[in-house]
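In response to reviewer comment 3 from the previous cycle, which asked for concrete evidence that the modeling workflow produces usable outputs, we include below a single protein chain processed end to end. The sequence was submitted unchanged, and the resulting structure tokens are shown without manual editing.
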Amino acid sequence: MRRIAVAVAVAVTAVFVAAACTSSNPSVGPSGTPTGAPSTVRVTPGPPTTLRVLAGSELADMQPILDEAAKATGVTVKMTFAGSLDGAQTVAEGRADGVYDAVWFSSTRYMETIPAARQRLATSPRIMGSPVVLGLREPVARRLGWDRTPVTWSDIADAAKRGEFTFAMTDPAASNTGFSALVAVASALEGSGRVLDAAAIERVSASLTGFFAAQRLTAGSSGWLTDAFLRRNLGADPGPALDGLINYEASLVAVNRTRKLPEPLVLVYPTDGVVSADYPLTLLAGVGDAARTAHQRLADYLRTPDVQRTITERTARRAAVPGVPLPPGLPDGLVELPFPGTRSAIDALLTAYFDRIRRPSRTAYVLDVSGSMAGARLNALQQALNGLTGADTSLSGQYCRFRSREDVILLPFNQTPAKPLAFTIDEQNPQPSRDAVRTAITGLHAGGDTAVYDSLVSAYKVLDSASDQNRFISIVLMTDGESNSGRSLADFQAFVASRSGATPIPVFPILFGEAAESQMQAIATATRGQLWDARNGELAHAFCQIRGYQ
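The workflow returned the following structure tokens.
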């Protein structure tokens, strides 16, 4: 595996707002480099205790280490996975109180900018680290010369604008990797070394637009994105190969370790800086003494040098304590870029990204309005979709709403697909456009049978006929039952296969009511989408989560 080893003269101290650790839990410096004296805490077993932790899904790979921790400390960790933004909202709204004892995400920096969340966070020892960087296929890195010469974010942005490479990156409102990359490239292009504010974001918007012109794949999950990147480059998914993947350093190393690609990814570390995950295991304020003691025992165990070495060996993340070497082949001394310290700056950056900077999206919403949807179910569908028109003003809702320049196509169906209703969200004054979508949603009425596959084919034809294909294109299917009219599942699968060479269009089915799970999963599999389950009544949440993939 070939990598760029970047030497820098001065390491810039990261601007973190996470809570300070105790003296026995030294902090982590730039790019995960440990600082301070080694921990001298002796870890001893205690009474069996379960620690309930709300965590980022990428921490699933820590389960074997946590199983070993349970034997050594008596602390069993029960993790419930959520996205970074959902986790922040859960804590801020008090819905974590009494349900979880701790939160464990790649970073709590965004959560710390929300006063209602910050006051609920207690001690926060860091466990490990991983910078967000660009991984490029080796032939592309060699062609660009980035396998042997130092590179800045400006170099990367210029090459992206010229169309010299393409990349995949997660949605920055749904995933920390996407947001960290957005912060890093914006801060580096701004160049002052100061924390980003709204004025700085305006100054670099044009350069950011050039950079994101090369983005060809988005997702709400780093894991899903990595899998899609691999499938595309191995020819298992339709569409051209992707040159690069923005992700955690550890995730890119894991890709290389699998040896699935014909050539390894070259990890590109911009000399002007990165933003790193620091994985603080954060105790929630107000928990009982048993949970507090268990949290301390677990954190002390995870920060012992032997366990830190195990973490670096198994996960390729960087140690959080001094004296533990980096995973093999990874460079030291990375510059850490400052993280925005206010919600207003974060909101300005995300709003600019969605409304002006990134490639816009075009989504067809294929909506079941058959007879079984009459009454409460249709009302639930209308309320969920109305949330995307600006009615949902919650923390996550504001980033789920329809965005400027976005094409929204409503395609209701029963025994036949109805005439599509198409809207483009105005760039200068978006809310009237969203209101028009809301009016159309309010006008939906239920009746008739269910022709799922005819309606999906109709949506594909509408999307394929658009002259502008330079968008993120997808279909969202919501149905509460089984298809009982028109084409069969086999017919639809044959139709998808016949589109070889056309723009790939994933379908994201939402299970609702008595929808046939096996059929909906088959649709997602055939189109390389993902199945979402809203049978528990969380229809609005499903629509919002899918936004990360559009």
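Residues 1-40 have pLDDT under 50 and may be disordered. We consider this sufficient to address the reviewer's concern, and the full set will be provided in the supplementary archive.
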